[in-house]
Design brief:
Multidrug-efflux Transporter Regulator, Chain: A, Domain 2, alpha/beta, three-stranded antiparallel sheet, D-Maltodextrin-Binding Protein, domain 2
Length: about 300
């Protein structure tokens, strides 16, 4: 029995179509849906009414929409506050270049790429210290495909804290010892994996962290939980601290990248995306947020096959 509010995957199964086709219907504004905390939600009652309405029209409208998917790419994976800005700037130009993106976490984004549900996976899964990717692990998630990892930007990730927090250095040991309420990212996200890495480095058991099982899906949600007083610490990007006026203590400078099948790299939409990323207009727009380095943007850093 379908849920009252369905995800894109559940909606695709309910309609008997591919999940990519659901995103095509979103693109054309043909299907009733709304976005909640970065994810598309489809009320079943409205979907049923939509099906009935289209059936009464006795026309092939849905099929016509789904055939017109040229000029669009589908993406899933990690999250960054400037990613939406970048995608929107790319789509402001002429030519109908579109990227439709969903926040799923880095690991799930790569898995969806391997399943053929997306064209691009956003990720930040390079190993702390070395900055290198475990290409065997990525190849296992995207089997039988030649893939490329394209560098987008360097960013700082660290502790977000209330503005009134003192100057003492924050650590997971301090969070555990002082009983500070922590807000976590979802399992499989690059930030969650980094959090677990730093817990291991400090020898802290996750069970000693108050609120460790409280999860949100985006960096901005981490910041909003802290801003509202519902949490006292969380891991997110420095740009969120700038936007929300929170205190920030860096943990790591990391690479934020996109994974895609090698042939997709040469698609006009991808090249337009990289062109926008490298433009002075975009970089001037996000400069006030700080914490970003675009020196190697657009460089292919790894390939398989």
């Amino acid at each position: 029995m379908p849920a009252e509010n369905m995800s894109t995957k559940e909606t695709a199964e309910y309609l008997g179509i591919n999940e990519k086709q659901v995103y095509a219907l979103i693109k054309s504004k043909s299907i009733p849906c709304t976005r909640v905390t970065g994810k598309w939600v489809f009320p079943k009652k409205l979907i049923d009414r939509w099906i009935t309405t289209n059936a009464l029209k006795n026309g092939p409208y849905i099929d016509e929409v789904l055939k017109d998917t040229t000029g669009a790419l589908f993406a899933a994976g990690s999250n960054d506050p400037i990613l939406d800005i970048l995608i929107n700037r790319m789509q402001n130009g002429t030519g109908g270049k579109h990227i439709f993106s969903c926040v799923t976490g880095s690991t799930e984004g790569i898995r969806l790429l391997g399943c053929g549900f997306t064209d691009i996976a956003w990720c930040h899964l390079s190993k702390p210290g070395t900055g290198e990717y475990d290409m065997n692990a990525i190849a296992d998630l995207v089997p039988d495909k030649k893939i490329a990892i394209v560098h987008l930007f360097q960013r700082e990730l660290g502790f977000l804290l209330p503005l009134k927090t003192g100057s003492e250095k924050m650590s997971f040991a301090k969070i555990a010892g002082d009983g500070i309420e922590f807000i976590n990212r979802q399992k499989g996200s690059g930030t969650r994996i980094l959090t677990e890495h730093f817990l291991d480095m400090e020898g802290i058991d996750s069970g000693s962290i108050k609120g460790y099982d409280n999860e949100v899906n985006t960096h901005m949600e981490v910041g909003l939980k802290i801003l509202s007083g519902k949490a006292g610490a969380g891991a997110a990007t420095g740009s969120v601290a700038k936007i929300l006026g929170l205190k920030f203590q860096p943990l790591i400078n990391e690479s934020f990248d996109m994974v895609l099948v090698q042939e997709t790299f040469f698609r006009e939409e991808v090249q337009k995306f990289i062109e926008t990323l490298q433009s002075e207009e975009f970089r001037e727009m996000v400069a006030p947020l700080g914490n970003y380095d675009f020196a190697k943007s657009g460089k292919i850093i790894y390939t398989t096959g």
